[in-house]
Amino acid sequence: DTDSNRPERQAAIGTQRFRWRLTVAFILVGAISSGALAGASFLVVRQARLQDSLERGLERARTNFLLAGLALGPESSLDDINNLLSTYRRAGLEAILFADGEILATNSQLRDASTVPSSLREDLEEDGSTYERTDIAGMPYVLVGQVVEGTDLELFFAFREAGVQRLISELGKVLLVGWLIRVAASGVVGVLLSRR
After folding, report:
1. N or C, which end of the chain has less CB nearby within 10 Å?
2. Residue 41's pLDDT band (cuts 50, 70, 90)
3. Using one digit for the tens of pLDDT, what is the confidence trace for 82-105?
4. Terminal alpha carbon distance of the chain
């Protein structure tokens, strides 16, 4: 009697294994496909947001480098420089200016020499701006710098990216939750189909 039940038990075990494999296959397919889509979406949106932030910063900096070139010359006094920085401050710009070894800035937080990476200062030119992403007091910034035309003054504008980074982080969390829901749904579908 035991021997006569053996084929039925083996068939039941085989069916269980098949169901288990079908469920695992659904989970894996769902996890891999939705994970690849979510990852690619995140990278594309992240790159677009960072590029947009950079382009806005570069455009604002270009305009204000022109203003600095008009306001300052080789014989500019400290008062001239401070007046320009006051104009930037009133316009809501964060600026750092290196003049004869002195660091002047629109706010005291930016007056530390280490605020501007040495690699960025080494790349400065008069006829074009250069940029670098860096952290200042734990906050993400894009620094855009250029030598003020007709002078040896090094001018940098600091554009905050905390808002952009926060949006990117929130997007990553939303995509992760969506991916987990998709994996769970794949598992449920796999279980339901395997029971048919």
Report:
1. N
2. confident
3. 899 999 999 999 999 988 888 888
4. 29
